[in-house]
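Researcher: Structure for this, please.
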Amino acid sequence: MSVTYYFAIVGTADSPLYEAEFGVQRNENKHLHQFVVHAALDLVEDALFANNSCYLKTIDTYQNLNVSAYVTPSNVRLMLVHEAKSEEAIRAFFAGCHELFVRTLLNPFYDPSMPIQSRAFDAKVNALAKKFLI
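Model: Predicted structure, token format:
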């Protein structure tokens, strides 16, 4: 069974700061994944009112795709489109990615409104995906 994960970090102005795909690469689904994440952003806002925690679990489904979200205290959204449900693994992945994002914010040369283009950040996110998702 081939499973694809699409991960995006969305800034406070609804602009994508980082995108990555894990698992089996299917280029025809990349735009579909972006669309599903964009459509789920409003549901994240609604879920924040009902939930106190940063991890909002699965907030939306589209066909066989689930969308899970994690919102940082600074209102940056970490979104994951996935087929399989493993809540604890997804929570651990989000926690690790949040820590990496905070470390990136501590860099004085990084502008928080700009996309993350660091190869080291990308490698660490991929390592977290291999550890918890794949």
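Researcher: Any notable elements?
Model: The longest strand covers residues 16-23. Helices lie at 30-50, 87-105, 119-132.
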